[in-house]
Design a protein that fits this description.
Elements lengths: L5 H10 L9 E3 L10 E9 L4 E2 L3 E3 L4 E10 L3 E15 L6 E15 L3 H7 L5 H5 L2 E2 L4 E3 L1 H11 L34 H20 L12
Parallel strand pairs: 7-8
Antiparallel strand pairs: 1-9, 2-5, 3-4, 4-6, 5-6, 6-7
């Protein structure tokens, strides 16, 4: 039976295979455990898969520019940063492709591996907060989950190509921005039904009209 609290075992399992060569894994060894020590890092990385939502996001492989500030504190390393990346998607009104520039700010605490032991000595009973704690593993941390959350929270849920985009015609699907005067004749369905009935009556009257003498070829 393995020792340590469940959250720590879970975090160790997640971080056990961190590779310092991975683009979103960062090394904090230069900071040591000296509170107040600072390190700034700039890095360009390829965007991971599924970095966004259904209608808009950062295309896999697109360049993400990261500016990070790593600060050693008593509990661990406080990471503050900004991510910049190109967005691609489609307008939810007219379905046209659109492009944007994303800038997302984030801040996250990565705790030292023994931080949970110290926190248990001063247990606050806040299990939800413990579940959200991220830990350093061998002085490394993985920025990907933090970056993913920051990007998704910064995205517009209903992206539009322009604020006043009129969308598509409900009748034929034409893009209204391309034809501002586009319209269809409005027909009241009640009058349309009456008109159809009148035409049916007229056709019936024509069929039942008496024939004039000489109209029947057999009489000749």
């Amino acid at each position: 039976m393995s020792g340590g609290p469940p959250q720590r075992r879970k975090q160790e399992a997640l971080n056990a295979r961190l590779d310092h060569r991975a683009p979103l894994v960062f090394d904090t060894r230069e900071l040591g455990r000296r509170p107040g020590a600072l390190k700034r890092v700039s890095r360009s990385v390829a965007a991971p898969k599924d970095l966004g939502i259904e209608v808009i996001g950062v295309r896999e492989g697109a360049t993400v520019e990261l500016e990070l500030r790593l600060e050693s504190v008593m509990e661990g390393v406080l990471v503050t940063g900004t991510a910049r990346a190109p967005l691609t998607g489609e307008c939810v009104r007219c379905l046209e492709p659109l492009e944007r520039e994303l800038e997302a700010d984030f801040q996250e605490m990565y705790s030292y591996p023994d931080a949970d032991d110290r926190s248990r000595d001063a247990d606050t009973g806040d299990d939800a907060e413990e579940e959200d704690t991220l830990f350093l593993e061998a002085d490394l941390f993985d920025l990907e989950p933090v970056l993913r959350d920051a990007v998704v929270l910064s995205l517009p849920l209903q992206p539009v190509c322009r604020e006043d985009c009129p969308g598509l015609c409900a009748d034929c699907g034409a893009r209204l921005a391309d034809d501002p005067d586009h319209h269809h004749e409005a027909v009241d369905i009640r009058w349309a039904a009456l008109q159809g009935l009148a035409e049916s009556i007229q056709d019936g009257e024509k069929d039942n009209a008496p024939r004039q003498r000489g109209d029947d070829p057999q009489e000749k």
